[in-house]
């Protein structure tokens, strides 16, 4: 049975374009080949695989037999006005147990209002919203029988009503729900450009004891004060700097490279996965020496 501790090191989002390339890298062997040695785990969206049968099910099984898997959900809409989709959560629970997946995370945002929307939208930063979202997270954890992590989201228009800033809201939700944090370093950077705050100060305010998992990704810059979180470009230096600082402040934690569009060959992505692993090794040595 996979355990949370198996999600460690550096990871890569498992896109269908990459699956044959990873399988070819393995060849006929069962052991991870040197060119992808730093892929310690993979991430999938459960919505893309729940109910899969036939060839797709066999393909997924090939990967679950060789890599620890984390699940990052897309459509739970924790902050949305629609009732929590408990039927879907029961299917998620069955999927996680079937494939021995130890970690499930979701976005701290909403994506439904009488139907599913095509973007992740910001939750109003209010006391009422803290209680509302935290209750839905607690209910999710009760149904799944496990603690989940919620990801700080990127957004482009501020919610119409706010009583607090984003960081205060995130911390309040984590405390009220007693859940983990899925820390997205790129989203911190994106929001810092779009809303004009210091990303390093934001990072220093994060409750590090709740970080269980992290993402880095690239984005598109549409203007001097507008960045779009596309996951379609290479990670830029300011985001790498934030990751380096996060390890220095909070210690090493599992970190995954997201790439959802404009996906290059696996060898190109491995340069960024290897960069994650190198930063982790950089901070691991002083920690071991201190112990």
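^ Assign residues to that structure.
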């Amino acid at each position: 049975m996979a355990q949370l501790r198996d999600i460690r090191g550096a990871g890569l989002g498992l896109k269908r374009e990459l699956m044959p390339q990873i399988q070819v890298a393995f060849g006929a062997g069962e052991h991870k080949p040197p060119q992808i040695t730093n892929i310690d785990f993979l991430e999938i969206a459960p919505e893309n695989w729940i109910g899969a049968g036939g060839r797709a099910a066999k393909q997924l099984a090939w990967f679950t037999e060789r890599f620890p898997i984390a699940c990052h959900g897309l459509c739970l809409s924790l902050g949305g006005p629609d009732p929590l989709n408990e039927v879907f959560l029961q299917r998620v629970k069955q999927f996680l147990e079937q494939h021995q997946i130890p970690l499930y995370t979701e976005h701290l945002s909403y994506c439904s209002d009488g139907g599913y929307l095509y973007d992740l939208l910001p939750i109003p930063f209010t006391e009422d919203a803290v209680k509302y979202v935290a209750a839905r997270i607690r209910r999710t954890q009760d149904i799944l029988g496990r603690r989940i992590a919620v990801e700080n989201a990127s957004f482009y228009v501020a919610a119409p009503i706010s009583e607090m800033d984003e960081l205060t809201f995130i911390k309040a939700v984590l405390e009220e729900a007693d859940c983990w944090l899925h820390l997205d370093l790129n989203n911190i950077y994106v929001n810092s450009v779009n809303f004009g705050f210091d990303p390093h100060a934001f990072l220093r305010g994060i409750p590090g004891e709740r970080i269980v998992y992290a993402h880095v990704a690239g984005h598109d810059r549409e203007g001097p004060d507008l960045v779009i979180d596309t996951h379609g470009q290479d990670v830029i230096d300011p985001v790498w700097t934030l990751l380096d600082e996060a390890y220095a402040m909070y210690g090493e934690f599992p970190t995954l490279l997201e790439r959802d569009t404009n996906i290059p060959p696996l060898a190109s992505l491995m340069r960024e996965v290897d960069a994650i692993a190198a930063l982790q090794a950089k901070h691991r040595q002083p920690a071991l020496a201190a112990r």
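The domain at 4-290 is CATH 3.20.20.150 (TIM Barrel).
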